[in-house]
Design goal:
This protein is of the alpha/beta class. 62% of the residues lie in helices and 7% in strands.
């Protein structure tokens, strides 16, 4: 009995079922790709070499699978059944990937590990190993993925009019599944169930597809309407226009080369748009998933649209040409629009942050038109290549293979060569030119000779492209996912690196380094006073206080080099691992312009690599390791906050070695801070938490007992050996360490109680980003979080009790007042001080808050209880010291005050009267004073004052240098107007324009200048302006013609004083007499 041919309804039913299965296949494939990318980053590191290797081998597997399927597809009689078994094979092989990675990690250590120091990335052995291992690990699952489209095309295409349409639908639905897969992985699975769980979901989906194909085949067999051996489906060849292979010839074969080029330029665009939009979207897993989903969505829709219109080869050729031209023209529009995107985002939201969804929606609609054109090329190309219905599967395989090979080359060349070398503007122009070249070749080679108009049009557009001169998208490069407002300042340097876009901005005497728009580090200009010491200095100074004998240090993350600046001289060697070489190039750009150049430190050895990858290949151990990676949600940093990485760090520490982990509060929330604490405690036996700056946290950890405060109190080291070094960063003694101590071991354990440990498989930092709806910590919230664990107020604190207390509680409370931490000073006073000292601390707080009368009354009360209280006595008589004749209270106080307090009270009248020679004779007595005390600012004024006032032809410059050093060691917390003026005069003596200009800028701020909007001053400010402006402005006038300093900067600083004097700016700058 002869079987009837399949009905249209049954064929449609089968096609719809296949579409559903293929949607799930695309969904699972992107789950795997997202998870595998992170797994390989953990195993091989996040250097650009490792990431590109994984991407290239993934796509190479797809291409190889498609090519093999295309070669043997004509012999396959049951393609759907084979497709189902391939899905099962993908599921099984996907479960083996983690084991393959573990084996690869062991092999790479065995082959090129054990090096004497961390290596740079990119060595030939390392490159070959990455390529080889990634290929063998991924080739089986990705190869099977690549074979699925040709198989289903063979099953679904039964008539010439179905070639373009059904191939396009298959490609579109699979891409749509990929869109859902990447969004599901980035937003749901990875945050909820981690890497392993995400892979298991993919395995489950593949197994489900296998089961569905079996049901589908059984359903067809029961209907007997479709026989799965496709050769049994007879198509009347007399009704089908055929083109034999000889007739097809070169013109149709050229489409493969054009699709190779199209794949190349498409992935060049993907790299380009992803890098640009990363400034706005951020670098988290969810942000990357959103950008990738937006790109794939356009491709899916474009392929579906093309499938509807791809009826004949001529339509396909014209459509292909239009798609290439459209991609070029729309990409020009996209590039020009992206630089205006920050302003557009600002109009959509008044908040500093804008939700990721809103940004994604805006970006999607901007990219959509071009991605539609990119997606349309595939079904058009398949139809152009197909000579008859039986070759549809083979044609789809060949087009897919060549297009994927082009995509591989595009991803690698764009990421490694084009974008880093040509940067954004030239890469965009090259890509547009590529599209138009493809269109011109297609028109010339695929259209008949009579079809001249499209050829002429493509040629005209190609030559018109030469007029396209894109500019650098500076507005976009100035923004980040943190802020909708572009960063201020002159852009001195910009470079598109392989892993990040690095910019360097100059603004008001400071340089700011940015990484993909995110603020990375601040650097002070040469001549800038040592005020507001950067917390990065503490990162390298603190562990040496804990281990004074430390000689070797590893710093992870170069940033602005501030951490290197803080390394004490006692450390003999410093290794620094930096992921992005352009960050080093930006630092070199300002090396001669900055206050200190860390790159000139002979102890420093730079390693350009991912930290995990570099450390896995060396046995070198260190006394101190400091980890200060970039923002913790970014791809290059998130894996440096996990338990596995901390364990790796521990294995590279010498016995008793110290690990320091940095964190800033405005990039994480309360949950992540607790998670980080739990992770540190999970690996290290001893840990403490320090807060040297209100927004900076430092975890100090070791496997041996650490107690920097007690160590310093007992030995005095390392401060005694290099006191000047520590004084320049505001560390004068044990009180400063206690001021920074936020939680000891027991407090940290309570803080981390019940918090989850952060792991590679469940990395909570990678899931958090700057677009998150969850609020990040503020300084006020952090205060509340840490207050219950404050070690300074514990009644039985080891700091104040025992046979040898580490710190004097009264001295500590006074230090806290000097740092402006009044509530904590009051809590310490209540917990540890007697009544007299509590009143004294209250008096200091009142004085710092400007309530001088109540402060004096409080000091007087203290003296009534304890007449010999040195601090209260000094503070009480200080305002009377310059009165003439000398008040009896001062004379009486001088009988009991010790030096240096006594010397200060005696010499203040001499300074006011201009008797600086008398002050000079008392310098030895004044020098007994320690920084950070009540009298310190007056000691500084007196000791620096006589050095810049007394003229001496031989010793003048030496004394000026001494004056600057004295001032820079003592004014970290207090912008003292007198000290700054003296520093300015020292710069005049030394003929140092940089010192004069930058000190004058800070002096204007100390007087009361807070920007052009400054409209009112206090009586004290007005007096300071009138006294200092006549001193500063004439010298600035002379510097206007000095080639050693930028005229614009001199004018900028002078403007501040003119504004304070309420003088209008005229064409000729005129200064008061």
């Amino acid at each position: 009995m002869t079987k009837e041919p399949p009905t249209r309804r049954s064929i449609d039913f089968g096609f719809v079922c296949v579409l559903g299965c293929f949607f799930l296949s695309g969904f699972a494939a992107l789950l795997y790709e997202t998870a595998w990318m992170r797994l390989f980053s953990v195993a091989f590191g996040t250097s650009e070499l490792a990431v590109a290797t994984v991407l290239a081998t993934y796509m190479a597997g797809l291409a190889l699978g498609a090519a093999l399927a295309g070669r043997y597809i004509s012999t396959i009689r049951r393609p759907v059944l084979l497709y189902g078994f391939l899905e099962l094979g993908i599921a099984v092989s996907a479960t083996a990937v983690p084991f393959g990675l573990a084996t690869a990690r062991q092999l790479i250590v065995a082959i090129i590990g054990g090096q004497p120091a961390p290596p740079d990335s990119g060595g030939i052995m390392q490159t070959l190993f990455f390529l080889g291992s990634a290929f063998f690990i991924l080739i089986v699952p990705t190869g099977m993925m690549g074979a699925t489209l040709p198989l289903l095309t063979r099953f679904c295409v039964h008539a010439p009019e179905q070639v373009g349409r059904r191939t396009g639908y298959l490609y579109s639905i699979n891409t749509a599944g990929a869109v859902l897969g990447t969004l599901t992985a980035g937003f749901l699975l990875l945050p909820w169930i981690g890497l392993t769980g995400t892979v298991h979901v993919g395995v489950t989906v593949n197994a489900l597809v296998f089961a569905l194909t079996l049901l589908l085949i059984r359903s067809f067999d029961q209907r007997e309407s479709i026989k799965l051996p496709t050769s049994s489906i007879k198509i009347d060849s007399t009704k089908v226009p055929q083109t034999n292979r000889h007739q097809l010839g070169f013109r149709a074969r050229v489409i493969l080369v054009l699709m190779l080029a199209s794949g190349f330029v498409s992935f060049t665009y993907e790299v380009l748009w992803t890098r640009l939009l990363g400034h706005l979207m951020g670098g988290s897993v969810s942000a990357f998933a959103t950008m990738l989903a937006g790109f794939l969505s356009g491709i899916a829709i474009g392929s579906a649209i093309a499938a509807r219109i791809a009826r004949t080869r001529k339509v396909a050729v014209v459509g292909f040409i239009i798609a290439q031209v459209g991609t070029a023209l729309l990409s020009i529009t996209i590039y020009q629009t992206l630089d205006h995107l920050p302003a557009l985002v600002a109009q959509f939201s008044d908040d500093i942050r804008m939700t990721l969804g809103a940004k994604a929606g805006l970006s999607f609609f901007i990219l959509l038109p071009a991605t539609l054109c990119i997606g349309a090329t595939f079904p058009f190309a398949v139809l152009i290549l197909t000579s008859n219905v039986a070759e549809a599967g083979e044609a789809s395989a060949r087009v897919y293979t060549w297009n994927t090979l082009g995509a591989i080359s595009g991803a690698i060349l764009a990421g490694f060569v084009l974008v880093p070398t040509l940067e954004f503007a030239s890469t965009a122009k090259l890509a547009v030119g590529f599209n138009l070249t493809i269109a011109l070749c297609a028109a010339w080679l695929l259209l008949k000779e009579s079809s001249k108009p499209p050829i002429v049009l493509a040629a005209l557009l190609f030559f018109a492209m030469l007029l396209f001169h894109p500019s650098v998208p500076e507005n976009l490069m100035r923004v980040s996912s943190f802020s909708r407002i572009p960063a201020r300042g002159e852009m001195l340097f910009s470079a598109v690196g392989r892993s990040a876009t690095v910019t360097l901005l100059k603004w008001d005497g400071q340089y700011e380094l940015r990484n993909n728009g995110l603020p990375e580090a601040g650097v002070f200009a040469k001549g800038f006073p040592l005020i507001n010491v950067h917390p990065s200095h503490w990162q390298s100074a603190l562990p040496v206080v804990a281990r004074p004998n430390a000689e070797s240090m590893l710093i992870i993350g170069f940033g602005g080099g501030g951490t290197i600046e803080g390394v004490p001289p006692s450390v003999q060697s410093i290794d620094v691992i930096e992921l992005e070489p352009e960050m080093i190039a930006a630092n070199r750009r300002i090396a001669p312009l900055r206050r200190h150049d860390p790159l000139s430190d002979p102890r420093v050895r730079l390693i350009i690599n991912d930290a995990r990858g570099a450390l896995s290949l060396t046995n070198k151990k260190y006394d101190i390791i400091i980890s200060q990676p970039s923002h913790p949600w970014t791809a290059g940093a998130s894996h440096l906050f996990t338990s596995e990485f901390f364990t790796q760090i521990k294995s590279h520490l010498n016995p008793g070695g110290i690990f320091v982990q940095w964190m800033t509060v405005n990039v994480v929330d309360e949950t992540l801070i607790k998670t980080l604490a739990a992770t540190v405690l999970d690996v290290f036996e001893y840990s403490r938490l320090y807060r040297p700056h209100p927004s900076t946290l430092l975890f100090l950890s070791s496997n041996e007992q650490i107690d920097p405060e007690r160590q310093l109190a007992w030995s005095g080291e390392p401060l005694e050996s290099v006191r000047a070094h520590y004084s320049r960063m505001g560390i004068y003694g044990v009180e400063e360490l206690c001021h920074a101590l936020a939680a000891n071991q027991s407090g940290l354990k309570v803080l981390a109680d019940r918090a989850p440990v952060n792991t590679d498989r469940f990395n909570r930092f990678a899931m958090q980003d700057s677009n998150s709806a969850r609020p990040s910590l503020t300084i006020e919230l952090l205060d509340e979080l840490l207050r219950p664990h404050d070690p300074l107020v514990e009644p039985d604190s080891e700091l104040f009790n025992g046979s040898a207390p580490a710190v004097d509680a009264a001295r500590l409370a006074s230090t806290l007042v000097s740092h402006g931490n009044y509530p904590r000073a009051q809590r310490v006073a209540v917990a540890h001080l007697n009544e007299v000292d509590r009143f004294y601390i209250e008096g200091r707080i009142l004085a710092f808050r400007g309530d001088h009368q109540r402060s004096r009354d409080t000091y007087q009360h203290v003296l009534s209880l304890a007449p010999d209280h040195t601090g209260a006595l000094f503070e009480f008589v200080l305002p009377l010291a310059t009165q003439q004749p000398c008040p009896p209270e001062v004379s009486e106080a001088l009988k009991s005050l010790p030096d240096p307090e006594k010397a200060v009270i005696e010499q203040l009248p001499n300074a006011v009267a201009g008797r600086w020679d008398e002050v000079a004779r008392a310098d030895e007595r004044l020098a007994k004073g320690l920084p950070g005390r009540e009298y310190s600012v007056y000691v500084t004024r007196l000791r620096a004052g006589w050095r810049v006032t007394l003229e001496d032809a031989q010793l003048g410059e030496q004394r000026a240098e001494e004056a600057i050093d004295i001032i820079d060691q003592s004014i970290h917390e207090d912008l003292d107007v007198v000290c700054l003026r003296q520093r300015f005069l020292a710069g005049v003596i030394l003929d140092r324009p940089d010192i004069q200009v930058e000190t004058a800028a800070v002096l204007a701020q100390a007087i009361g200048y807070y920007g052009p909007a400054t409209s009112s001053l206090t009586a004290t400010n007005i007096s300071d302006v009138r006294f200092n402006a006549p001193i500063v402005l004439p010298h600035l006038t002379q510097l206007l013609t000095d080639s050693r300093v930028e005229r614009d900067r001199v004018e900028e600083v002078a403007e501040k004083f003119l504004h304070l004097l309420n003088l209008p700016r005229t064409r000729q700058m005129r200064f008061p007499d």
